[in-house]
Design brief:
Protein name: Putative membrane protein
Largest sheet: none
Number of strands: 0
Structural class: mainly alpha
Organism: Herbinix luporum
Helix content: over 70%
GO cellular component, one term: membrane
Strand content: under 5%
Membrane topology: Multi-pass membrane protein
Shape: elongated
Subcellular location: Membrane
Length: 96
């Protein structure tokens, strides 16, 4: 007798492997977009200790110049690591 698959099994074994690259790309873009938010922290947060790193980098005139390079590297690092985590998926998806 033929056994029917549940919708969850169909999604898990048929659909997700096909769109894995798209999921990775969208996750990377969403993470980078959220990480790069500038306007929201500067508008809604009055206290500087709650603002994100990019809001700190934007106000570079108020801070010492020796702090800017490590802050910039620390700012780029999470997005770069997230890209390294998914770059194999992205390369496989972009092959024609």
């Amino acid at each position: 007798m033929l056994e029917t698959n549940s919708p969850i099994q169909i999604i898990k074994y048929c659909i997700i492997p096909q769109i894995k690259v798209c999921i990775c790309a969208v996750a990377l873009f969403i993470f980078a977009d959220m990480w790069n938010m500038v306007e929201q922290p500067m508008l809604y947060l009055n206290d500087n200790k709650f603002r994100n790193l990019l809001a700190f980098i934007v106000q570079v005139d108020n801070y010492n110049s020796e702090v800017l390079m490590p802050a910039s590297v620390f700012f780029i690092l999470p997005v770069f690591l997230f890209y390294l985590l998914f770059h194999d998926e992205l390369k496989r998806g972009f092959k024609i």
